[in-house]
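Reader question, answered in our methods column.
A reader sent in the components of a multi-part assembly and asked whether the whole thing could be modeled at once rather than chain by chain. We filled in our standard form and ran it. Here is what they sent:
COMPLEX SIZE: two components
ENTRIES:
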Amino acid sequence: MFMAVEKQIETDFISWQGFSMPLMREWRPLRIEGVFKKGSITIGDVSGPLFEARWLRPGAADFDGRAWIDSNKMKSNDKIASAPPRPQGFTSVGWIKGFEEKDSGKKTVWWGYSVEGQIILEIIISELVEPAAYEWIISNVLPSVKVFKPEEEWTWRIFSAQFKVPAGFILESHKLNNGDMSLCFRRPRKERLILRQVYPAELALSRRALEKWFENSPFSERRRFSEAKDGCRSVGKKDFTVDGWKLVPFPLGFIRPRRCSRIAVVDDASDRIFLTEYEYGKRDSGEIAQVAVKGMRGGTA
Amino acid sequence: MNLFGNIVKSSSIDRSAALNACPIRTNAVKVEEKKEKVYVTVLFQRPKWQRWLGAEEECRRSFGLDKYGAEVYHACDGDTPVRKIVDKFARNHKLSIAEAEMSVSTFIQTLLIKGLIVMEVQKK
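And here is the structure of the entire assembly that came back:
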């Protein structure tokens, strides 16, 4: 696969939990674990895993990233290497090469701490992978890692589905199925945002009408959607919008109802259905749902 | 393991060989397009127990393929490896390679089971 180095290499990227990195087009995430504060994602190709990216959010305002990286490097004193890749936005970086753990072969481990992203990244590359792939990771992936600041909009991209999420929303759960990708976010003040892409749209719509796609939510919940009598409802061939409430089941529906805005759009360019469901408080507006749909249009492979 | 407790080795190929294999359409009795679907009719040999019960040796089976299935079916020309079919499918439908690979390989398995294609695999 990597013999013809002269051929132009096609790339894609992955963006998850506040950081993004370029990947070769044939690479894909093999395993995703963890939550906002801590987790890992393993990237590989058809032959197996290539590298693993772990993230950690220290939380403390006075966290010393430099000292943390140095203490990790000291665990393997003789393997400390010079000139680690330093992507933009990272204040402290470091790496070790030829690090060997019991029964797992030699590895290169790179650490980076970003103050603006409030994140520590640890990228572990097996030195058993093909040399061309190893070199590509070192020279293209590591220097191009990007972090998103907490106060800015985050891009989420997994496989061919891309989403843009306003600042402050934290991923609560996800369902990543072939042709049906869903992410559920929460923000303090009881805001909940579900973003979903279903594709190919032509096939999906032949099985179920556009507005019916909200009836089977990928995330289970007790509250039920009730359409608002004075709300907006618009049904078109390629779009659907409805406002309503998310209510606790009868007879407790009067307890803390939440406003809910649902938008579904068929994007012909990408042959996808974009669905957004946004729950919010009485004092907020449902604009975020429309912004989220626009954010999905810019993505796909 | 068979009836007598002996381990029977089944022939299998690794993933790389499977992706480099070239699927070929079997000879179809009839291929027709109706209402945006492609209907492929092949001859099917009945299992022995059905023939013992008096059924005819051969019968016809028709399969309807939607737009995506027809695209993969028509790509099985005996010269194009699965890897290239996956790549073309991914580009046509703006998918990642991983998504296209899963969909195409599952569908090719179905076509194999139904007898619409056979696979030519390079031996190492």
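What stands out: Chain A has a mean pLDDT of 89. Chain A touches chain B through 18 residues (CB under 8 Å).
Send us your own complexes using the same form.
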